[in-house]
Every structure is written in C-alpha cells, then in structure tokens.
Design a protein that fits this description.
Number of helices: 9
Strand order of the largest sheet: 3-2-4-5-1-6-9-8-7
Number of strands: 9
Strand content: 15-25%
Helix content: 25-40%
Structural class: alpha+beta
CATH superfamily: Thiolase/Chalcone synthase
Largest sheet: 9 strands, mixed
Distance between the termini: 26 Å
CATH class: Alpha Beta
Radius of gyration: 19 Å
Shape: globular
Number of domains: 1
CATH architecture: 3-Layer(aba) Sandwich
Length: 273
C-alpha cells in the first residue's frame, strides 16, 4: 500500500452564478475558454488555502482530469477549418482545443514547473487524476500535487443525452473542482487523509458511459452522480463533512457500474480541526 497523503485544501469554481475572475488572472485569461478559466480559478483558490510551504516550482505537480475536454472549442476550430480552409483556420482556437491546455495555463499562471498532466477518461476522471498524483508523490517525483477536475458545457453533449433519454445531466455550466495533496505530516489535525484508492475500468458501450446507467455508490443514497464532474463534487462534499467528524472516523466509498468499479477510503488526520 502506498504511503498516505492528505488533502489540505479544496475549492470549487463555477460560472453558473457569474462569479468574477480574480483581477490578478483576468488579463491573462482573456482568451481562455470557460473550461480553462474555471480550472485555473479553482486551482489557484485551492493553492491559496493550502498550508504555506517553501517549495521550488519543480516540486509541485499539476494533474487535471476531464471526460470531454473543451468540446465547444473543438467544434469552433473545425468550423473555421471547414469554412475557411487550412490557411485561415484559427491558431488560437486550435491551441485551446488541446486537452492539456488547462494544465498549461495553470502551470504558467501559477509559476509551477513540475509535471503537468491531463487524464482523459469517461469513467472517473477526477479519481484517475487523484490516483496519478498519488503515484507521483509516492515515487518522490513531486512533493505537492494539485488535482483538478473540470468539464465544460456543450450543446452537442446535451443533445446526445436527451436523445439517449437521460433523466438528468451536468453539462449546463463550466465548473471545476480542485484539491491540494500534501504529505500527511504537513496536514493540520482533522484534515482528510487518503488511505486507499483502487480503480478498475472495463470496456463499455458509449451510451452507457454517457448516461452512467447502472452506476451505484454503496456509501451514499440511491441518488447517484449523473456525470463525471458530479463524482468530484460528491467527493469534495464528503471530505468537507469528514472534517467535522472525530479523528477515528473512516469514509469508504464503493462504486460499481457496467464500466468498472472503484474503492476509495479516507480517514481524518489525528486530532481536532
């Protein structure tokens, strides 16, 4: 089993309430799409909440998880390519259609020069990014890891969900969730500590992954998350609740689905918050 790591800060950023972009980031994000903007804002907020540490920029890693990436930017770039030809296709739209663009913005704007990776998976992108970050910390490749999950709104995706008869979906806003992973000894008492994470993905029909038919969370109510970002939001909510409990409490989540299963175990750090 890998050495435990602690979550020392968490943040959620969304455009649904027209939250303003911080003044320090507004100018440099002026060309960024909504997905990149929310990812940068959530990560910057989480990092600002984390315990202060004298770390070299190369000691901090960035791990972004997304299922669909910047879909609308991809479609807009393809429109310029088809309408105007290769010579007139927008280079700005092309660069922003790359899935790793959000991680690149985070690295540049926060002056972090460690590994910057984007994990793309339709099943559990936040947990995949979390697992990858934990592996990098276990191998001493980074001392601190920033883990971010982000999804963007897409009219095409929403239309596909309606055609498949999905009862609900979570693609109506750009939203991001971010957390900071630190060694347990850096965490204040009462903070959540990751003990175990096992992810097993299996091949599955695309419509099952899109609608998440048959997915169940053993530690939660019958109301299951309906999209990949909802998992990150549910976990952050659970970790926030865990902080208010006693030090010996343990939170275990077992997820079963037609596209795989997950086991996730947390405990609170010793002492009271």
């Amino acid at each position: 089993m890998r050495q435990e790591v602690a979550v020392t800060a968490m943040s959620v950023s969304t455009n649904k309430d027209n939250e303003p972009v911080p003044a320090s980031l507004k100018r440099t994000l002026r060309r960024a799409d909504g997905l990149t903007t929310q990812a940068v804002v959530a990560t910057a907020q989480a990092l600002a909440k984390a315990p202060s540490r004298e770390l070299a920029p190369v000691e901090v890693g960035i791990f972004v998880g997304t299922a669909f990436g910047p879909l609308e930017i991809n479609f807009r770039f393809l429109d310029t390519l088809l309408d105007d030809g290769e010579g007139q296709a927008s280079p700005t739209l092309f660069s922003h259609s790359v899935h790793n663009m959000a991680a690149g913005y985070i690295s540049r704007l926060l002056d972090l020069r460690g590994p910057a990776l984007t994990m793309t998976t339709f099943a559990w992108p936040f947990l995949t990014a979390l697992d990858t970050a934990w592996q990098f910390m276990a191998q001493k490749k980074v001392r601190r890891a920033l883990v971010t999950a982000v999804e963007a709104k897409s009219a095409v995706l929403e239309d596909a969900l309606r055609r498949l008869g999905a009862s609900d979906h979570s693609t109506s806003v750009e939203e991001a969730v971010a957390c900071v992973l630190d060694p347990v000894e850096w965490a204040p008492p009462g903070y959540p500590v990751l003990q175990d994470l096992k992810i097993n993905e299996v091949p599955c029909a695309p419509q099952i992954l899109l609608t998440r038919k048959g997915e169940r969370w053993a530690s939660q109510s019958s109301q299951c998350p309906t999209g990949p970002l909802d998992h990150a939001l549910a976990i952050i909510k659970a970790l926030t609740h865990l902080r208010s409990k006693n030090a010996d409490d343990v939170l275990t989540s077992n997820i079963t689905s037609l596209f795989g299963d997950v086991r996730l175990t947390w405990r609170t750090n010793e002492g009271k918050p």
